[in-house]
Design goal:
Layout lengths: L1 H23 L9 H27 L19 H34 L8 H6 L15 H4 L3 H10 L2 E4 L17 H9 L7 H11 L4 E5 L5 H19 L10 E4 L3 H20 L7 E4 L5 H10 L3 E4 L1 H9 L10 E5 L1 H6 L3 H8 L7 E6 L4 H7 L7 E5 L9 E7 L5 H9 L6 E4 L3 H13 L4 E4 L5 H12 L5 E4 L14 E4 L6 H8 L9 E7 L5 H13 L6 H4 L10 E2 L2 E2 L15 H12 L15
Parallel strand pairs: 2-7, 2-8, 3-5, 3-6, 4-5, 6-7, 9-14, 10-12, 10-13, 11-12, 13-14
Antiparallel strand pairs: 1-8, 15-16
């Protein structure tokens, strides 16, 4: 019983003891083994490191990644304006890096396609001959013009939109009289209705008369021909007065043209001014035209009498040089008209071979309306301290031409042609890409009672000459042609040019429409396009129309290219290889075509008068 009574006492005592202990020791911490404590410590340190890393990554990350957790995605401590400015900076930085990458890629492409050898004669390259100074001439600008300040000259250039590059540039001169041309030349200019120089003539004529090598770039119909024709006549006249040309001597001046028609036109212009001088009592200057499809005997007769000026196409000239019918021993004046056509389309070797026949230094001139940077850089290797005279962008269309682009289905083009002819009075010039299209259009127009003639590289020279002559005299209303008629030819009073199809590159388009709107007159160019046209050429056309502030048809307006954001990088617009505004060199169809052409060794195209008779 005592045991029974004592047990509950003990139990009660122990319970009270434990309660007193818990009440007296409030800070009691249960025992944690060392192993567990170390685990907890490591876990705490790991979380701390993780937190520090997160904060550091947040501070270094892009602002757009530092967005608070609220539903509007706003920063907790940065204003929306600051966020916008920061995002804009990031976007610009990314854009700059993309542009730099694009430019580097283009530089590599341009370097890979650039001609490594200089455009010089084979003999000169072999002997390492280099001319340091330009040819000296007896011409100087009037003293009072030389005494005018450089600021005045710059004002004249700026007013006439003349861009000049080079050393010791002669001043621009605003009248032919101040250029010291004789009365015979001045009177002949007045008869032609030419009263004052055009911008390319203001700067170009003093440069050429000074003996300087020159690259002349100006839009079609701007008077480039006179820039090399008048000086060549003056230099030959000076030589003839000092010491008359004897038998088999000459030529002193040589002009090379890419097509027969252009060579014939240039020869006629030279003969007009030389005849005017002869009528004024000056010595008679003899000219020789060397082109394919004409009698070599007639050309030799002129050469044997002593020739002052020769106008030629490369093939016939090379043939006569090779057979020693012509000697360039005293030739000191060389002009390449439409130079980019000859150099760019694979005639480097032809020109280089011709250069090899010169026996001394020559004054070299290159002229064209379309001359991309690649050609300019390559051509400079043949020139001595050259002056580049540029009126407007190389490859730009004349602002005097209203460009109309019409969407016409392929099967409806020939019928639509009759309606298009009604836009203006004759004469009208129609261009087609293929010879068979020219023949088909010509036949169709004749059946419809239209007085039309046609020319292309497949026709013999007599037929081509008769067609051009009849059209020039106004006996025929319409001339249908391939691109043989697009380079440099000057037809009076043409108000309308029709492109039956869009050419394969934009340079030919610029040359085609340049047959109208010449010498300050207005003209219209109508171009038929459809889905068969190459998209890259249409993009070039679109941007050319934008540049000339012309109406953009809906079909062209909807066209977009991947490279449009890169069309203007720094000072370089469009493609540095072909000059097209609708693409960059990375997407250049002309460069791709050239590379494919070299690989497959395809012959030259018709617009360079490719048949053997032309050469």
């Amino acid at each position: 019983m005592c045991e029974n009574e004592g047990e509950p006492v003990r139990k009660r005592y122990r319970r009270e003891e434990s309660e007193s202990e818990s009440e007296s020791d409030d800070d009691y911490v249960p025992y944690v083994p060392l192993k567990e404590r170390r685990k907890q410590q490591l876990h705490t340190l790991g979380r701390l490191n993780l937190t520090l890393q997160e904060e550091e990554s947040k501070s270094n990350s892009a602002i757009e990644e530092e967005i608070d957790d609220d539903q509007y995605g706003r920063k907790s401590n940065i204003s929306l304006l600051d966020q916008h400015n920061e995002l804009k900076k990031k976007a610009e930085a990314r854009k700059e890096s993309a542009l730099e990458k694009q430019l580097k890629e283009e530089e590599k492409i341009l370097e890979s396609v650039a001609e490594k050898r200089a455009l010089m004669g084979v003999a000169e390259l072999a002997k390492g001959i280099q001319y340091e100074e330009p040819i000296k001439t007896g011409w100087k600008p009037p003293k009072y013009i030389l005494e005018l300040s450089e600021m005045r000259h710059e004002r004249v250039r700026k007013k006439n939109r003349i861009l000049v590059e080079g050393d010791d540039i002669p001043p621009p001169i605003k009248t032919f009289k101040e250029m010291k041309f004789p009365k015979g030349i001045l009177n002949s200019l007045k008869k032609k209705g030419i009263s004052k120089p055009t911008p390319i003539q203001m700067q170009g004529l003093p440069a050429v008369l000074s003996g300087r090598d020159m690259i002349g770039i100006a839009f079609t119909g701007s008077g480039k021909t006179l820039v090399f024709v008048l000086p060549i006549i003056m230099f030959c006249l000076e030589q003839e007065i000092k010491l008359p040309f004897l038998k088999n001597e000459g030529p002193y001046g040589l002009v090379i043209c890419p097509s027969r028609e252009l060579a014939k036109q240039t020869d006629e212009i030279i003969r007009y001014y030389t005849q005017c001088l002869a009528n004024d009592g000056m010595p008679t200057l003899r000219c020789c035209l060397c082109i394919g499809g004409t009698s070599v005997r007639d050309q030799l007769d002129v050469v044997r009498r002593g020739v002052h000026i020769m106008v030629a196409t490369p093939g016939r000239l090379m043939d006569m040089l090779d057979k020693k019918m012509v000697n360039l021993g005293i030739c000191r004046y060389l002009c390449l008209d439409e130079a980019d056509r000859m150099i760019d389309m694979g005639f480097e070797e032809d020109v280089r071979t011709i250069f090899s026949y010169f026996k001394g230094q020559r004054q070299t001139l290159l002229f064209s309306a379309t001359m991309p940077k690649k050609i300019q850089n390559f051509a400079r290797s043949a020139l001595v301290k050259p002056i580049t005279v540029n009126v407007g962008r190389a490859g730009a269309a004349s602002m005097d031409v209203i460009q109309e682009v019409e969407y016409v289905k392929q099967e409806a083009k020939i019928v639509h042609l009759l309606d298009t002819l009604q836009k203006t009075a004759p004469p009208v010039l129609i261009f087609a890409e293929k010879k068979q299209d020219v023949d088909a259009i010509h036949e169709y127009l004749l059946l419809k009672g239209v007085e039309a003639v046609a020319i292309h590289g497949g026709k013999d020279q007599d037929e081509r000459s008769r067609a051009v002559e009849g059209f020039r005299k106004g006996e025929k209303d319409v001339l249908v042609a391939t691109d043989v008629a697009s380079k440099g030819l000057d037809f009076c009073d043409i108000q309308h040019v029709i492109n039956y199809d869009m050419p394969e590159d934009i340079e030919n388009y610029v040359h085609r429409i340049g047959r109208t709107g010449r010498s300050g007159k207005k003209g219209i160019a109508t171009t038929f396009i459809n889905k068969a046209c190459d998209e890259s050429v249409l993009l070039d056309l679109k941007h050319l129309l934008i540049e000339a502030k012309q109406k953009i048809p809906p079909f062209l307006a909807t066209l977009q290219s991947e490279s449009e954001k890169y069309l203007e990088l720094g000072d370089e617009r469009g493609c540095s290889y072909c000059g097209g505004l609708g693409h960059r060199i990375t997407d250049c169809p002309k460069l791709e075509a050239m590379q494919n052409k070299q690989a497959s060794n395809i012959g030259r195209r018709d617009y360079l008068a490719s048949n053997s008779a032309d050469w």
